Amino acid sequence: MSHIATVKVKLKDLAVLAEVCGDLGVPYDLGQPEVRLYSGTVKAAACFHLKGWLYPVAVLRDGTVNFDNY
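The structure corresponding to this sequence follows.
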């Protein structure tokens, strides 16, 4: 069974997130309009892909982070 976790964070600069992802070798997409999770799609400001995860981590415009490690 899949569960979606939602974490409220305050991201002030997506460029910093992109830089950190780059430093860690984590694939990052800025401005991807829709991100597919197990339960459906979300509109995201950015997303990144963790190694071994089937679905990406979606960062929404309000700072909410949605992810689903099914």
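Residues 14-24 form the longest helix (11 residues).
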